[in-house]
Write a structure and sequence with these properties.
Length: 418
C-alpha cells in the first residue's frame, strides 16, 4: 500500500526453480491497455549500489531504447504510471496523495489532481482517455475528469487501503482490490459516472472474498468476462465476472519446492491447499486474453497459458525480492516483456526466446512501475525515494508497426533457462 513509500513486502521465498515449459510459443498479443501496477507498503531500505548487469543478447532485431525525457514533480515514492489509451497522456500517482498528468511527447506537466487524504497505490484510465480512476490508502477510489481536473465521484465501500484498480476495455466495469483480501466490482457508465447494478449512486455491485492476504493486482480480460487477481498469499485466481465464481487457481511455485500444506475451507465450499509460495505481486492478461503474465518475489516473471493453466515461459535476470514490481507487454515495435527491478534498472526480454535484449539504466533507486505506449515504441518507468523521477524511453529503431493477429511459427524452447 502507499502508506509509507511504495510496494515493499518483506516475505521470504524458497523457490528458485524455473517453471518454463517447451510446449508452444505464444502468439503476438493484440494491443490493449496496460494492467494496473501493484500496491505499496512500508518504508524501503536505503538503496544499495546495484550489482553488475546481466548479459544482454543483441541481434539486429533488438530494441534500441534511449532516454527522451526525465519528469520530476512528485514529492514521495511513485507507485504507478499509465499511458492513456489514445497515447496522448501519461498519468502517474504517488504516496504524496496526488495524481499527475503529463505529456509523454514533451515531458510537460499538464495537471495535478488532488483530493485523496492518504497515499495512492494505483491508477487506471477509462477508454475515453478523459476519465481516470485512482486507488488510495484512504479506502476510496476517485473517478477524475482529467480534462477539467475535477473528481466526478468518490467510491466508498472498502474497509481498508485500496491496493489496485482496473477498468475493462469499454469502461463499463471497474474492479478494485484491498488489503483485506476482498475484490469489489463496480458498474460504470461511459461518461465516467459509477452506478450500482441497475441503479445510481456509486454503490458496489459485487464483493468477492478472494484471497487470504493483500490483493496486489486485478485485471480484466479483453471482453471483461474474466478477472484475474493475485495476492501476497501466493495465489493467482481467475474469476467469472458475472457469477463471481473462482474458475482457476495458479501457483507461483514449482514441483521441486518444499511445500507445507494448510487445508482451509474456502468461500465456495471447496478445499484449497495453501502452499509456501512466493508472494504474487502483479498479474495481467495478455492483450489477446490467451495468456497471463505474473511477477513474484522469486526474481521471476512467468507467462501462463490460460486454457491449460501451465507456465509456458519464465523470464529471469532482474531482481525482485522485496517490492511489488510490475511487468507488462510491449507489442508495438517488438514482442517484449518489460519490467522494473530492485537493481535500479528496466529490463526487456524477448517474449519467445526469454533472452534479455536490453537493459535501461539511469534511475537511482528501485524501479517499481513501468508502462508501454499503446501505439509507439515508448516506455515509461518510475522510481523510489532516492530518485522520484519518471523516465520516458523511446526506441530509435524503425517506427512502430501494429502487430499481426497471429504469429509465424517459431522454434520451441529446447532447454530450461534459469
Amino acid at each position: 500500500m502507499a502508506m509509507d513509500n511504495q510496494k515493499h513486502f518483506m516475505e521470504d521465498t524458497t523457490s528458485e526453480s524455473d517453471n518454463s515449459s517447451t510446449e508452444e510459443d505464444p502468439e503476438i498479443p493484440e494491443k490493449s491497455q496496460s494492467a494496473p501496477a501493484p500496491p505499496p507498503s512500508v518504508s524501503p531500505p536505503v538503496p544499495s549500489i546495484p550489482p553488475p548487469a546481466p548479459v544482454v543478447v543483441r541481434t539486429r532485431n533488438s530494441p534500441h531504447y534511449e532516454l527522451r525525457h526525465t519528469l520530476r514533480g512528485h514529492t514521495d515514492s511513485i507507485s504507478a504510471v499509465k499511458f492513456s489509451p489514445d497515447g496522448m497522456f501519461l498519468a502517474s500517482t504517488s504516496n504524496d496523495m496526488t495524481v499527475k498528468i503529463w505529456s509523454p511527447m514533451t515531458g510537460e506537466l499538464i495537471r495535478t489532481l488532488k483530493g485523496h487524504t492518504k497515499g495512492n497505490s494505483d491508477i487506471s484510465w477509462a477508454s475515453d482517455s478523459v476519465h481516470l480512476a485512482s486507488a488510495s490508502d484512504d479506502r476510496t477510489i476517485r473517478i477524475w475528469d482529467v480534462e477539467h481536473g475535477l473528481p466526478v465521484r468518490v467510491l466508498k465501500g472498502h474497509s481498508d487501503s485500496v491496493f489496485c484498480v482496473n477498468y475493462n476495455n469499454t469502461s463499463t466495469l471497474l474492479v478494485s482490490g484491498c488489503i483485506d483480501g476482498d475484490i469489489k466490482l463496480w458498474k460504470a457508465a461511459n461518461d465516467g459516472d459509477i452506478k450500482l447494478w441497475k441503479a445510481a449512486n456509486g454503490k458496489c455491485m459485487k464483493t468477492l472474498n478472494a484471497h487470504l492476504d493483500y490483493v496486489t493486482a486485478v485485471h480484466f480480460n479483453r471482453d471483461a468476462s474474466l478477472i484475474v487477481s493475485c495476492s501476497l498469499d501466493g495465489l493467482i485466481k481467475i474469476w467469472n465476472t458475472t457469477t463471481g465464481q473462482c474458475l482457476k487457481t495458479l501457483t507461483e511455485a514449482s514441483a521441486e519446492a518444499l511445500w507445507y500444506l494448510l487445508l482451509k475451507l474456502s468461500h465456495f465450499n471447496t478445499f484449497t491447499f495453501l502452499l509456501s509460495l512466493p508472494s504474487s505481486q502483479h498479474v495481467q492478461f495478455s492483450p489477446n486474453s490467451k495468456y497471463i503474465l505474473s511477477t513474484a518475489h522469486d526474481n521471476a516473471i512467468r507467462l501462463w497459458d490460460y486454457q491449460t493453466s501451465r507456465c509456458l515461459k519464465t523470464y529471469r535476470g532482474h531482481t525482485n525480492r522485496l517490492y511489488s514490481i510490475c511487468a507488462c507487454f510491449s507489442v508495438t515495435g517488438g514482442k517484449w516483456i518489460v519490467s522494473g527491478s530492485e537493481d535500479h534498472r528496466v529490463y526487456l526480454w524477448d517474449l519467445q526466446s526469454r533472452e534479455i535484449v536490453q537493459i535501461l539504466e539511469g534511475h537511482e533507486d528501485v524501479v517499481v512501475a513501468v508502462a508501454t505506449h499503446p501505439t509507439q515504441n515508448m516506455i515509461a518507468s518510475a522510481s523510489f525515494n532516492s530518485d522520484l523521477s519518471i523516465r520516458i524511453w523511446v526506441d530509435r529503431g524503425p517506427p512502430a508497426v501494429p502487430p499481426a493477429s497471429t504469429s509465424p511459427p517459431l522454434k520451441e524452447d529446447t532447454q530450461e533457462k534459469r
